[in-house]
Amino acid sequence: MEPEEGEETGSERATVTMRRSSDPGWLLQTRGLAAGYGDEAAFEDVSLEVFGREIVSLIGPNGAGKTTLLRCLAGILPPREGSVEKAPGLRVSYLPQKLALDRLLPVTVAEFLSLRLGHSLFRCDWKGGEQAESLEELGVLNLLDRRLGELSGGELQRVLVASALAKRPQLLLLDEPATGVDLLGAAAFDALLHRLRDRDGLGILLVSHDLHLVHHISDWIYFLNRRILASGPPKEVLREERLAAAYQRFPHPG
User: Fold this and answer.
1) What digits encode the pLDDT tens for the residues 55-81?
2) Are residues 38 and 73 in the same domain?
3) DSSP-derived secondary structure for 125-179
């Protein structure tokens, strides 16, 4: 794959590698996408691709437009310019970083999952059949009778992922999915993402500031700072000089 050289951005030249846009395995692609709020553009001229059976990470400093881009891809925020093309019939689930969730409400995990899917609390049997098998794999089956406020950060994150996966998506959009998760929970979450990719064939696009996680799990990375500054596999994008220029320090992805 030969990189296409872009315009000068700050002190470095943007290096963006576009991929197999004609590949039958593609799920989503954008061309020249721009979006924002009010008169301010959060990002512009974003072209990217996501394929099935791969984990794509979106990195960049605070204010780079990452969350806004995910909201645009999820169909929550309309683009100002450019296009978002999805594979026919593509099912997308989006898990925001800050889900409006009051953990003090006396709601059990089973009730929460039912409400997220729009089911009556009394019609959905989460402990039976194929749903139970899926919840057990996610480590959620034994949490169904517990209240949300009793869960640890890692347990709550698994419940939120379960709610996103219950709609059987082909593409999963995750915004800072490891926030509030301890090391043990992070390892389990890492394994879960690989299982979703390798066994279930999902495409996963995630935003993360955790460059250790990004370096370990990603098949492809897009480096966004209002524009795509670089894209490629981790060893090409997570270079010291590129990260230092954007973050003003080198976070040592390891």
Assistant:
1) 999 999 999 999 999 999 999 999 999
2) yes
3) -TTSHHHHHHHHHTT-GGGTTSBGGG--HHHHHHHHHHHHHTT--SEEEEESTTT
